[in-house]
Amino acid sequence: MSPDQMRKAIDLNCDMGESFARYSLGADEEMMKFITSANIACGWHAGDPGVMRATVSLAVQHDVGVGAHVSFPDPLGWGLRSMSVSPEELYDYVVYQAGALAGFVHAAGNRLRHLKPHGSMYAVVAADADLADALMRAVRDTGPDVAVLLTGEICREAAAAVGVPYVEEGFIDIPYDAGGGLVFASTASEWAQTDADPDLVADRAVRICLHGTVDTIEGGTLALAPRTLCLHGDLPRAAARANRVRERLAEEGVDVVRFEVARPGSATSTAPVTGVHR
Amino acid sequence: MSPDQMRKAIDLNCDMGESFARYSLGADEEMMKFITSANIACGWHAGDPGVMRATVSLAVQHDVGVGAHVSFPDPLGWGLRSMSVSPEELYDYVVYQAGALAGFVHAAGNRLRHLKPHGSMYAVVAADADLADALMRAVRDTGPDVAVLLTGEICREAAAAVGVPYVEEGFIDIPYDAGGGLVFASTASEWAQTDADPDLVADRAVRICLHGTVDTIEGGTLALAPRTLCLHGDLPRAAARANRVRERLAEEGVDVVRFEVARPGSATSTAPVTGVHR
Amino acid sequence: MSPDQMRKAIDLNCDMGESFARYSLGADEEMMKFITSANIACGWHAGDPGVMRATVSLAVQHDVGVGAHVSFPDPLGWGLRSMSVSPEELYDYVVYQAGALAGFVHAAGNRLRHLKPHGSMYAVVAADADLADALMRAVRDTGPDVAVLLTGEICREAAAAVGVPYVEEGFIDIPYDAGGGLVFASTASEWAQTDADPDLVADRAVRICLHGTVDTIEGGTLALAPRTLCLHGDLPRAAARANRVRERLAEEGVDVVRFEVARPGSATSTAPVTGVHR
Amino acid sequence: MSPDQMRKAIDLNCDMGESFARYSLGADEEMMKFITSANIACGWHAGDPGVMRATVSLAVQHDVGVGAHVSFPDPLGWGLRSMSVSPEELYDYVVYQAGALAGFVHAAGNRLRHLKPHGSMYAVVAADADLADALMRAVRDTGPDVAVLLTGEICREAAAAVGVPYVEEGFIDIPYDAGGGLVFASTASEWAQTDADPDLVADRAVRICLHGTVDTIEGGTLALAPRTLCLHGDLPRAAARANRVRERLAEEGVDVVRFEVARPGSATSTAPVTGVHR
Question: Which of A23, A49, A77 sits opposite C23 (nearest CB)?
Answer without folding.
Answer: A23
